[in-house]
User: Which sequence fits this backbone?
């Protein structure tokens, strides 16, 4: 039966989201890509009540909340096990007051709390998962005041039909738990979740293996930022209001300090230019924006980047389109993201390790014929044409406002 439902789900989800005109109450939990912070990579198994409180305080005060960041997601390693009634219990040392206390604290800051579990008996970190306890755990999360669940797939069977079934079980449980909880599916893109994750209840679905804190890994077993970016290029039609392709957490600002993302020190992180391009590309891709650096020790440049108003408006645009590549010339790549009110975002990106000059003809090369008011998002200043010079791995993003001269 589940296999039949899965096949139907795949057929329905295959049709481009642009054909949809109505959104359900469930979709409405993620009409734009979720924005927030996640404890993985920087804190990993050190995540604790104090860490979440510190990050919530930082996010509320440093301009991130004002810019639209909402979720603080506790990733793996928060669970100690189950009690005699099979209720999940948080690690008593690192979460001494329990999760409800933390949710209340985070809500008091005007922010939202996320949590993590796995569609098997054990999570990737080897602690208790939710398989066979989906309804009970969803009720527990709701009672605690949790607003977001990242649901991983370690230790679960490989086939797509079982994956769909296990994700749908938790999706169904969340739908009836009595609290709106955004559902983040994390099976690393291995079973083409863009075809079925919405039907399983997902609001976002990972499209790749874990990101590493390196521009390009040149290692088939490790995905750097460019390897991840290339895997998004044909997925645009599956993203839209209510459901998003998730190319994983932002490496921005980690500077090689995450254990998994640096592969225990092997990768030293990216340059400021590469992080800037990474962030701009994720905004163009309508990707969920989840940073995971230590928010208490962020450089002013990183904070300025992740709170850039125009870039965030592009990411959060209500039309919900993921950018597509419209031009590749030498090592220049141009992405275009249609926005509401016939506005357009254009990103010109230098993939090469050498500086490049560029000049893009809006009409002849991008087929944009109407008049636009154009501004450049780093400076926010108006420009007359799309031309300039880009250093290695740099990009420039233009906002084209329609209907004016
Ligand atoms: C998997 C996920 C990561 C993170 C870890 C936690 O690798 O893909 O994002 O949640 O598990 O163990």
Assistant:
């Amino acid at each position: 039966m589940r296999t039949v439902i899965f096949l139907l789900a795949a057929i329905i989800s295959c049709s481009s989201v642009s054909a949809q005109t109505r959104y359900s109450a469930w979709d409405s939990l993620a009409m734009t890509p979720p924005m927030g912070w996640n404890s993985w990579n920087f804190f990993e198994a050190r995540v604790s009540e104090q860490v979440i409180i510190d990050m919530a305080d930082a996010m509320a005060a440093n301009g991130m909340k004002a810019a639209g960041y909402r979720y603080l997601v506790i990733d793996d390693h928060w669970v100690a096990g189950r009690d005699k009634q099979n209720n999940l219990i948080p690690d008593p040392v690192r979460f001494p007051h329990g999760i409800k206390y933390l949710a209340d604290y985070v809500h008091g800051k005007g922010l939202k709390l996320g949590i993590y579990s796995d569609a098997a008996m054990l999570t990737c970190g080897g602690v208790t998962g939710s398989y066979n306890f989906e309804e009970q755990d969803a009720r527990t999360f709701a009672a605690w005041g949790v607003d977001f669940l990242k649901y991983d797939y370690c230790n679960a069977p490989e086939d797509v039909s079982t994956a769909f079934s296990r994700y749908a079980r938790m999706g169904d449980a969340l739908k009836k738990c009595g609290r709106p909880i955004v559902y983040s599916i994390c099976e690393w893109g291995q079973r083409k979740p863009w075809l079925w994750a919405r039907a399983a209840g997902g609001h976002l679905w990972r499209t790749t293996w874990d990101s590493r804190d390196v521009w390009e890994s040149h290692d088939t077993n490790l995905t750097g930022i460019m390897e991840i970016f290339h895997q998004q290029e044909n997925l645009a039609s599956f993203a839209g209001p209510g459901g998003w392709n998730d190319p994983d957490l932002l490496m921005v600002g980690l500077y090689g300090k995450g254990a998994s993302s640096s592969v225990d020190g092997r990768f030293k992180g990216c340059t400021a230019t590469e992080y800037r391009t990474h962030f701009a590309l994720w905004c163009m891709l309508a990707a969920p924006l989840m940073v995971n650096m230590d928010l208490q020790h962020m450089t002013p440049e990183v904070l300025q980047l992740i709170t850039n108003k125009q870039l965030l408006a592009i990411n959060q645009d209500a039309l919900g389109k993921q950018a597509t590549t419209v031009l590749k010339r030498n090592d220049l790549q141009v992405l275009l993201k249609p926005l509401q009110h016939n506005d357009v975002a254009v990103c010109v990106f230098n993939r090469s390790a050498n500086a490049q000059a560029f000049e893009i003809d809006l009409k002849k090369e991008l087929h944009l014929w109407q008049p636009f008011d154009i501004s450049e998002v780093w400076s926010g200043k108006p420009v007359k044409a799309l031309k300039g010079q880009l250093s290695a791995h740099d990009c420039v993003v233009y906002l084209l406002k329609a209907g004016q001269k």
Q: What stands out?
A: The longest helix spans residues 160-175.
